[in-house]
Amino acid sequence: MKILVPVKRVIDYNVKPRVKMDGTGVDLANVKMSMNPFDEIAVEEAIRLKEKGVATEIIAISIGEAKAQETLRTALAMGADRAILITSETEVEPLGVAKLLAKVVEEEQPGLVILGKQAIDDDSNQTGQMLAALTGRPQGTFASKVELEGDSVNVTREVDGGLETVKLALPAIVTTDLRLNEPRYASLPNIMKAKSKPMAQKTPADYGVDITARLSTLKVSEPPKREAGIKVADVDELVGKLKALGVA
Amino acid sequence: MMKTLVWVEHDNASLKDATLAAVTAAGKLGEVHLLVAGKGCASVGEQAAKIAGVAKVHVVDDAAYEHGLAENVAPLIVDLMGHHDAFVAPATTTGKNIAPRVAALLDVMQISDILSVESEDTFTRPIYAGNAIATVKSSDAKKVITVRGTAFDKAATEGGSAAIEQVSATGDKGLSSFVGAEIAKNERPELTSARIIVSGGRALKDSETFQQYIIPLADKLGAAVGASRAAVDAGYVPNDYQVGQTGKIVAPEVYIAVGISGAIQHLAGMKDSKTIIAINKDEDAPIFQVADIGLVGDLFKIVPELTGKL
Questions:
Q1: Residue B90 in contact with residue B147, Cβ under 8 Å?
Q2: Within the 106-165 window of chain B, which residues sit less than 8 Å (CB to CB) from chain A?
Q3: Cβ contacts (< 8 Å) between B233 and chain A: which residues?
Q4: Domain named Electron transfer flavoprotein alpha/beta-subunit N-terminal: which ranges (chain A) (predicted)?
Q5: Domain assignment present for A7
Q6: Kind of pairing, strands A162-169 and B176-183?
Q7: How many structural domains are present in chain A?
Q8: Which residues contact B47 (CB under 8 A, 6 or more apart)?
Q9: CA distance B184 to chain A (A)
Q10: What confidence category does residue A246 fall into, taking pLDDT thresholds of 50, 70 and 90?
Q11: Using CB atoms within 10 A of its CB, is residue A109 exposed (0-12), middle (13-18) or buried (19+)?
């Protein structure tokens, strides 16, 4: 079974994003970029399924500017077999990404597509669900455990009250939550090897997909600042403050 | 006037609070209709009809909807969207699971986790873990929206008298089935709707000390218990306690962060709390930059003393 793993190049999760003065967006110039953390977990899960002999081939795919190939090389260095880069100079919304991925799914026929549950830049949490809708496949979102069983997959999902397990008919779409696994680091020899793994270069036009944005961003602003707080000297003073707040 | 369909979150017996904020947000768009889909969920339909500001409640009672499986629920909603202009769901794990599937079937972009309704096509939403707020305008004919519960007041649960209409089921799509659930036992207030939250971090050392120090303080205050991702990953508490970008977004009146350094990821989940109180031994911890009241010191001394004096 083939596994398709979409990965996104995003601002590194340790960086505190800065809003541009002109309110057009977040300043990404000279900011460290990395693979979206949830996507690393998706790549790791695919590799583990290959190590168990369940998966035969792992295809990593990314949609975005040309630099996204660095993100794909990371996926290849972790253990993906080949990569597809769909370049677009404009930002592609989750709906557009899902439509492009649906075309690739049609072409490659993966048994599983494993995506991160959300990208830490736009925080949408939509692409996996949209891809499932467009391909008519079942979805196992926010997965903390994935177990293949013949022609179905059991996915344990992190839901608000705790955990829930669903059984999905294959082929299926899974999105990863943080606790699914601990992603591995790529070793230096594997990083070297990744350089010679195949990477196909495509454009949205190759798939005949219209990626015109449906949402326009009118403004990006800083969240309201909190006023500077005070420090109290001891527990008695803290108790006094809690009483003043009416909670003690 | 727009007609908005709101997803009612429930457990087939009672309506969940998260629905109420979604009703308020939907009311800003136009006429509010609710959808109660489940099995044996008639009582939820009755509760829903009493919510203030609701014009109509669509009830569909069928085994295919018992567990809210997106594969079965999304086609049902798409059918109802033939005569609605917007679909609104609370940004809970259920809402986040279903709404994008509906949006793609309708060929529209979803607007996730909105903080405000500026007009019927313009909304604000947090991006970059809440470090920026985007104002977005949708050009889609139909809107699919998820609502951040803490950003809207809850609609009153009494005072409404909406008509209840039975809807026919669209059937089981046979793509997925429910196997089981492990719901964490929690006698305390629910995290996302609690007035006070006491949250513990990695500094609590282990599961035992978390129980020993955080729980009595929370119980004294009648507070819900939360945790940072570090505390969850270290196994001190189950993951549904996690507050943050990847966990729950909370905005209680008082948030007490004990032994939490205040990583960006955690702040994303709690920085809209009305008053933030931090107890941490490191006076340079980032949590003190957002805390209204800070106390620098050893939590293992401070917390028992505080609990004792309350």
A1: yes
A2: 107-113, 122, 126-140
A3: 179
A4: 23-211
A5: yes
A6: antiparallel
A7: 1
A8: B14, B15, B157
A9: 5
A10: confident
A11: exposed
